[in-house]
Fold this protein.
Amino acid sequence: MAKVTQYSAIHLYSEAGVDPERWNREPTEKEIADTASALESHNIHVIRVRDGEEALLKIKELIPRGSEVMNGSSTTLIEIGFEEYQQSGDSGWKDLHLLVSAENDANKRADIRRMTVTAEYFLSGVNAIARTGELVGCDKTGSRVGAWPIAAKNLILVAGVNKIVPTVSDALERVRNFAYPLENVRAQKAYGISSSIGKCVILANEAVPGRVTVILIDERLGY
């Protein structure tokens, strides 16, 4: 079972003014199966798991010790316990966050941050998944979605089934009317600044076999 945190969606609905009944619903079994099949047809591997605990176990299996690992900011990754595990030092991974935080010079830190999207393994949440097999991710600066198209050698995307919507148009609408308002409230509470939809990526097809894996979780997670 995933952990509910202070920034989980359920705590921010009222302030964000979003409609969870429309945008955070649990799809039917057929809708989930059709989505997984569509993703696989686009060369995007799908691993379906019961809950956040199983998702974290699967991540540990997928990433060998000694690998370079970076992740974008993700409420889903926090809720499944990934961030806590990564920061514990028990993984044996080369955590590229440590390179960023160790650099005091702002310009050099920005250079390192750009480099991290090329990590051997990059993990990210997803803002929406179209049942037609497209994945949509957006962020303010590109520090997360910059890894999606080609930069990361291995891209692991972690998402609850609540991210599934009928079409790409619905996926973009979900970003505007659900994910962004929640993230904006979170950013103001966590950092004292507003967020914005700065960079968006639609991953519609993957050319490199095995590069992209989606861990699809049978829970409502993230934004």
About this structure: The first helix runs from residue 13 to 16. The first strand starts at residue 45 and ends at 49.
